[in-house]
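Q: I have 218 residues here and want to know how they pack in 3D. Can you give me a structure?
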Amino acid sequence: MARDNHPRDRQAAKLKRKQGTRPPYDRVLIVCEGEKTEPNYFDEIRVQLRIPTAHVQIMPSALGTQPRQVVDYAVEKFGESREFDIVYAVFDRDDHDTYHDGLAQAGRLNETLKNDEKKKVPFFAVPSIPCFELWVLIHFIEIHAFADRHTIIGRLKTYIADYEKGRRGVFALTASNLNVAMERAVRLREQFSRHNDEDLYTSIDEVVTKLLSLRPAR
């Protein structure tokens, strides 16, 4: 006589199916302040490295561009499925009122959310002071003295003449200097603080490093 299909057996079978479809890599959520600039850049890397969208979801904040709104939307998006192993909230210092609140909230959330496998999830703020364009600029020159957003973008146009917010192809134009930019970003973090509004700071390279680690083996 066939054995009864006990609820525990059904649950075990369900878990086995779920584990069988679990991709063998970190699932990454990247929520950005910018509607186009940062999403375009990260998605270009994803496409260039042939990283499937199942690995990485990249999107702008639907709640607004304030840093705290970016963090809150990342939490909201994570909670829809919990199918992520790491979360990044990407935003600029710029003139935002909630910059420090966004940093603090991201810090509180780190390792407190649990994903669909009941694992604690790293939750990182990814700030740039004054703006994302600092990361692009240090592919070309080393910079130590604070400059505002307009100055940074003005200097960047010396190297990318038609640069503007939302421009596509930025990764392709800068990829040859990626290792140099990463070294410069690390030096800035060693010298300056994300909590000081008049320091130069970016951790965009940390997201890029994560994306590079997801590159499929050939």
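Q: Anything worth noting?
A: The longest strand covers residues 86-92. The radius of gyration is 20 Å.
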